[in-house]
Design brief:
The complex is a heterodimer of chains A (14) and B (257). Chain A is built from no helices and one strand. In chain A, 0% of the residues lie in helices and 14% in strands. The N and C termini of chain A lie far apart (32 Å). With 14 residues, chain A is mostly beta strands. Chain B is mostly beta strands. Chain B contains four helices and 19 strands. Chain B has a nine-stranded antiparallel beta sheet. A five-stranded antiparallel beta sheet of chain B has the order 5-1-7-8-9, covered by helices on one side. In chain B, strands 13-12-11-15 form a four-stranded antiparallel beta sheet. In chain B, helix 1 runs antiparallel to helix 2. Chain B is globular. Chain B starts with a strand and ends with a strand. The model of chain B has no long low-confidence stretch (mean pLDDT 96). The chains are: A mainly beta (14), B mainly beta (257). Chains A and B meet through strand 1 of A and strand 19 of B. Strand 1 of chain A pairs antiparallel with strand 19 of chain B, so a sheet runs across the interface.
């Protein structure tokens, strides 16, 4: 199966 | 003092229609260069970025940087009060806790103004790196909306596979499977009807239908949409906003459990 990661896993907070 | 006047007010109405399902509230960052909005949806799976350039407005003034936090449901209700051919002006004083929307009919015979309370929003800002994407697909926005809608009947996810042969959208579920293949168009009369694929390397990624369908609410903004993909990074779905800017949606790909 596939899971849905959040977008903040890919883009860091600035 | 902040003031932005847009003769083509319908563009702002369409921008709100394009974001209001995804976002409940968001901050509009106003600066000399223009207006920007960046916000994640409630579940933090996607990110919306709106950019409206100062030069795109018919009149634009921003003496001091201003962050206007807005309830987008309220903003949408107010913009629904503007006719499609109305000229829309947004106005706020420095350090104000309200924003005023002014709608003028083209003949100037009817002028309405609506004042809305601003909110203090504490929102995370994400840094989006400059990326050279492995595949960039440009296609008619109506076609993309149709594909997302049709494949949503089959499952919760859409697989987008881009290769030099073209792009394939697929979904699978209880009732069966669906596949839609688009080849690059060889010749078209109108540029907006073209399917154009720029590919450095083939990419296959899986995305949640629910979000793709919400992104397609931007379809009335532009006849074309572009999809940018690289392995293991978020998809970018981009629509231009007339000549004044663009809206980008970033969506995290689904990954193997």
């Amino acid at each position: 199966g596939k899971m849905q990661p959040t977008i903040s896993k890919f883009f860091a907070s600035v | 003092m902040f003031e932005a006047r847009l003769v083509q007010g319908s563009l702002l109405k369409k921008v709100l229609d394009a974001i209001k399902e995804l976002l409940n509230e968001a901050s509009w960052d106003c600066a000399d260069s223009g207006i920007q909005l960046q916000a994640m949806d409630n579940s933090h799976v996607s990110l919306v970025s709106v950019n409206l350039r100062a030069e795109g407005f018919d009149k634009y003034r921003c003496d001091r940087n201003l962050i206007m936090g807005m309830d987008l449901t309220s903003m949408s209700k107010i913009l629904k009060c503007a006719a499609n051919d109305d000229i829309i002006t947004m106005k706020a004083q420095d350090n104000a806790d309200t924003v005023t929307f002014i709608f003028e009919s083209p003949s100037q015979e009817k002028v309405s103004d609506y004042e809305m309370k601003l909110m203090n929003l504490d929102q995370d800002h994400l840094g989006i790196p400059e990326t050279d994407y492995a595949c960039v697909i440009k296609l008619p926005s109506g076609e993309f909306a149709r594909i997302c809608r049709d494949l949503s009947n089959f499952g919760e996810s859409i697989v987008i596979a881009c290769s030099k042969e073209g792009v394939k959208f697929s979904a699978a579920g209880d009732i069966g499977t669906g596949n839609i293949k688009l080849a690059q168009t060889s010749s078209v009369d109108k540029e907006e009807e073209a399917v154009i694929i720029e590919m450095q390397e083939p990419v296959t990624l899986t995305f949640a239908c629910r979000y793709l369908n919400m992104f397609t609410k931007a379809t009335p903004l532009s006849p074309q949409v572009s999809l940018s993909m690289s392995p293991d990074v978020p998809l970018v779905v981009e629509y231009s906003i007339g000549d004044i800017g663009q809206i980008q949606y970033f969506l995290a790909p689904k990954i193997d459990d």
